[in-house]
Design goal:
Blueprint (H helix, E strand, L loop, with lengths): L4 H9 L4 H9 L3 E5 L5 E6 L5 E8 L5 E8 L2 H10 L2
């Protein structure tokens, strides 16, 4: 996962840490779906039970970078509970 200073600052404004993003991306259950353009939306839960939406996009090195991350709203949580695997 590639991080930029801008993406770290952006998630911090949402009260999310890089560690929580890592947990959300690599812990199940999670639900992955295409976003706008080349982005991918990852609906997931941290080890502490926090529900997050992480938006990632392809990086130039072939990996991915974090665009943003935030808490799920109530509607998104319900969808995640149905679709998360």
């Amino acid at each position: 996962m590639t991080w930029t200073e801008e993406s770290e600052d952006h998630i911090a404004r949402h009260g999310v840490t890089p560690e929580e993003v890592q947990e959300a991306l690599y812990t199940r259950p999670r639900w992955i779906t295409p976003g706008r353009g080349e982005t991918t939306l990852v609906f997931a839960m941290t080890d502490a039970g926090r529900y997050l939406l992480v938006v990632i996009a392809p990086a130039h090195d072939g990996g991915a970078y974090v665009v943003t991350a935030r808490d799920l709203n109530d509607s998104e949580r319900r969808t995640f509970r149905r679709k998360g695997r």
